[in-house]
């Protein structure tokens, strides 16, 4: 870690404008390897049983494991399919490496793919997901954007009113999000150059996750909000406080003390001392939850979890004393449930998995954001130019990632949004009858509920399309438009109905088609299966063009290169979009928190219906798509999940917090101390290797 004086020495000479960037090359921060690995175990040292088994050491899983083990009497095992990521810190930690040396496409990425998408030119679309401690938060773009209050409250309104559902809604999720955060204001230079507006009081100040802004800024970012205002799109002065409408420069999950990515591993796990009650096992793919007898109220009790290193290796079972918490993410959690025999009967029968609990909603209700770019030649230097020229690899320069953003409502997108809304509204019943990829009446009811809630958000002015300013390519600037509230689960507008019914057999879901947990999961988002989706994204692309032609940002833009001037009519735009639109990496709702009568998978306390002691606590439970990025609400959800569990078991409060250094009294037993000694010499070697490969990559970039 850097000393404070060294950081100041580096910050001081830099001016926050590309013309004045320091050209000095600097080594990356020394990685504090000794901190890592203190709670890692091997299969040889795994215990027979744990109080809680967390399935997936991703964003949510590590938050929950860290919080539950604040009580020294509670034992937790984390099983993570991927590796720790400690040997590839140079790809994970410097924020800009998310563009220039990403782990996407490597063994740290699940490399999921969709099945061919009929309405997206038959394309197979790649669906990256982190396969590493920290999960997708280790490879994501670090945008840290909260949803708006009306969206979070609408989700609560979809639950059966009860003491349990009272735990949700804006105030509660906000408390969870704040609990996870420590906010740091931007430097005044960065703030004024980028015209950043924020209200520090809207953020947390004592949580493990760092939320801040880059230490380095480009002046074109400061042209974002004025150019939006020039065409009638207001700026959001306090976007974290429930109103994220309009344009703003968002916070990022960046640690400004050493300009590194902040994510669940670096925030919630690495700083911990050895905790003898926390074991983290990597290269452990959970193959199923082992289900046993029913409890006296008829719910099936999980007795343990089965895992294996690979398809060829033997499975092992570890027993659970209290609960299994599934945190495998939107593809991972429903997959484990289905392989455990919990899911839609037709899917399990076809895959050859014996049915234990029929739960038709598992894997259904999938919603995702879909994005496409408008790109211009750039007249100003971009982050991509700076990187391509190898001019500055200082930690400060490497802290720049894109963050200018806007959420646009239907009244901005359409001359008359009433026409759009009434088109969508008029076809609800037809859709529910023809477009749901399940025979289950419960799932159909869920589609109707999500559909109605989405309509309500449209009329209340929630963001329908997101615009993002991206300057990470050389000689080019992009404004990306992304659909936020997909209507793909919704009906076709009447005039297109006949055409759509023919392709209505499958839609928006993930499922298994084999009994081997190591075979790929089948992902079918049914992108653009509803005309409303292509209509919204097309209007978003037109708006992106208008922003690009609006001063002052237009001064930075040369000719439009993508899609280019030849693509202009609605028909041309729709055909182009079908060929290029891609995921914005925000899949959700595959284990939706909805009433069981609506194809729900978990109740308001995140308990899987029909199971006595299994929860899902990750991004797969949000039933309704947010106009936001998913990390912030998932941190909030994970904090709430940990509270539900500790409250239930009345875990004694005999410890410090995750942020405070833990007291010496909990320092681990002899096994753990031995393990950490082994790690510290091995980790020094790893640090040297990592530094060596960084130097090689700098030299080869010359
Ligand atoms: C490329 C990319 C860019 C993104 N950019 C942003 C962004 O800028 N801002 C933002 O807010 N969000 C972004 N996201 C989304 C965000 O990172 C995810 O929504 C979030 O990480 C989801 O958290 P999670 O805990 O549900 O799942 P994950 O973080 O994906 O964690 C799931 C974990 O479970 C493990 N796992 C799965 N199945 C098993 C199994 N059977 N056994 C053992 N382990 C298993 C996985 O390996 C993984 O570690 C991005 C995502 C991607 C992929
Ligand atoms: C950055 O600092 C945090 C503590 O604030 C630490 O956990 C993390 O390991 C550091 N990152 C690196 C790469 O040194
Ligand atoms: C610790 O946990 C054990 C087993 O779960 C339990 O019997 C015991 O009462 C707990 N002790 C405290 C102090 O909570
Ligand atoms: C939509 O956004 C515009 C511009 O920010 C705003 O003036 C308008 O009130 C919003 N519409 C609704 C219904 O909230
Ligand atoms: C499962 O579905 C995928 C994607 O459609 C396909 O490639 C694969 O062959 C299927 N597997 C089985 C066993 O049917
Ligand atoms: C059975 O499990 C359910 C769900 O967790 C729980 O509400 C119920 O209290 C359990 N019943 C008994 C008798 O343990």
TrEMBL record:
The active site is at residues 586, 629. Its cofactor is FAD. FAD binds at residues 132, 286. Pfam families: GMC_oxred_C, GMC_oxred_N. Keywords: FAD, Flavoprotein, Oxidoreductase, Signal. The keyword Thylakoid does not apply. Residues 1-20 form the signal peptide. InterPro entries: FAD/NAD-bd_sf, Glucose_Oxidase_domain_2, GMC_OxRdtase, GMC_OxRdtase_N, GMC_OxRtase_C. Residues 329-343 form the Glucose-methanol-choline oxidoreductase N-terminal domain. GO terms for molecular function: flavin adenine dinucleotide binding; oxidoreductase activity, acting on CH-OH group of donors. PANTHER family: GLUCOSE-METHANOL-CHOLINE GMC OXIDOREDUCTASE, GLUCOSE-METHANOL-CHOLINE OXIDOREDUCTASE N-TERMINAL DOMAIN-CONTAINING PROTEIN. Belongs to the GMC oxidoreductase family. This is Alcohol oxidase.
């Amino acid at each position: 870690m850097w000393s404070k004086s060294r950081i100041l020495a580096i910050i001081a000479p830099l001016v926050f404008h590309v013309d004045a960037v320091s050209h000095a090359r600097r080594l990356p921060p020394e990685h504090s390897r000794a901190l890592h690995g203190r709670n890692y175990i091997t299969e040889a040292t795994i215990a027979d049983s744990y109080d809680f088994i967390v399935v997936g050491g991703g964003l949510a899983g590590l938050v929950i494991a860290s919080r539950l083990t604040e009580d020294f009497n509670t034992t937790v095992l984390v099983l993570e399919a991927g590796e720790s990521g400690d040997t590839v810190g140079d790809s994970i930690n410097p924020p800009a490496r998310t563009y220039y040396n990403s782990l996407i496409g490597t063994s740290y990425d699940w490399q999921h793919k969709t099945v061919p998408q009929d309405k997206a030119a038959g394309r197979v679309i790649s669906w990256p997901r982190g396969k590493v401690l920290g999960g997708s938060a280790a490879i994501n773009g670090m945008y840290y954007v909260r949803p708006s209050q009306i969206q979070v409250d609408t989700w609560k309104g979809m639950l059966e009113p009860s003491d349990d559902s009272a735990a949700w809604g804006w105030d509660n999720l906000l408390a969870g999000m704040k609990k996870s955060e420590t906010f740091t204001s931007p430097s005044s230079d960065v703030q004024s150059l980028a015209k950043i507006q924020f209200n520090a009081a809207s953020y947390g100040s004592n949580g493990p996750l760092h939320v801040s802004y880059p230490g380095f800024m480009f002046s074109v970012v400061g042209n974002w909000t004025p150019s939006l205002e020039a065409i009638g799109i207001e700026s959001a002065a306090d976007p974290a406080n429930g109103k994220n409408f309009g344009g703003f420069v968002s916070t990022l999950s960046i640690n400004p003390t050493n300009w590194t990515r902040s994510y669940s591993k670096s925030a919630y796990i690495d700083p911990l001392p050895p905790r003898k009650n926390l074991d983290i096992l990597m290269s452990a793919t959970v193959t199923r939850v082992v289900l046993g007898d029913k409890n006296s109220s008829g719910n099936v009790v999980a007795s343990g979890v089965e895992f294996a290193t690979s398809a060829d290796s033997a499975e092992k079972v570890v027993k659970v004393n209290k609960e299994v918490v599934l945190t495998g993410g939107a593809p991972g959690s429903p997959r484990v449930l289905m392989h455990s025999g919990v899911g839609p009967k037709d899917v399990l029968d076809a895959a050859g998995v014996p049915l234990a609990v029929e739960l038709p909603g598992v894997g259904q209700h999938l919603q995702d954001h879909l994005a496409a770019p408008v790109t211009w030649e750039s007249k100003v230097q971009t982050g991509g130019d700076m990187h391509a020229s190898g001019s500055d690899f200082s930690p400060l320069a490497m802290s720049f990632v894109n963050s200018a953003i806007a959420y646009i409502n239907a009244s901005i997108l359409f001359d008359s949004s009433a026409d759009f809304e009434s088109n969508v509204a008029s076809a609800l019943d037809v859709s529910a009858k023809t477009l749901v990829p399940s025979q289950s009446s419960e799932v159909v009811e869920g589609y109707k509920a999500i559909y109605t809630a989405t309509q309500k958000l449209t009329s209340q002015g929630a963001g329908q399309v997101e615009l993002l300013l991206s300057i990470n390519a050389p000689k080019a600037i992009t404004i990306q438009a992304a659909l936020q509230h997909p209507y793909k689960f919704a009906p076709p507008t009447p005039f297109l109905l006949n055409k759509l019914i023919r392709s209505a057999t499958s839609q928006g879901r993930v499922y298994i088609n084999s009994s081997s947990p190591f075979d790929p999961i089948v992902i079918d988002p049914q992108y653009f299966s509803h005309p409303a989706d292509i209509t919204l994204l097309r209007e978003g692309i037109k708006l992106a063009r208008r922003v690009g032609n609006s001063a002052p940002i237009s001064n930075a833009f040369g000719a439009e290169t993508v899609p280019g001037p030849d693509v202009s009519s609605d028909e041309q735009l729709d055909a182009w979009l079908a060929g290029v639109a891609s995921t914005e990496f925000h899949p959700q709702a595959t284990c939706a928190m909805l009433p069981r009568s609506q194809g729900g998978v978990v109740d308001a306390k995140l308990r899987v219906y029909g199971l006595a002691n299994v929860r899902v606590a990750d991004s797969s439970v949000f039933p309704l798509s947010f106009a936001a990025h998913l990390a912030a609400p998932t941190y909030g959800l994970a904090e709430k999940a940990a509270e539900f569990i500790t409250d239930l078991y009345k875990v004694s409060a005999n410890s410090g917090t995750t942020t405070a250094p833990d007291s010496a009294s909990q320092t681990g037993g002899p096994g753990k101390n031995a393990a950490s000694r082994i790690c510290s010499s091995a980790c020094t070697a790893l640090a040297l290797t990592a530094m060596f490969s960084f130097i090689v990559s700098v030299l080869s970039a010359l």
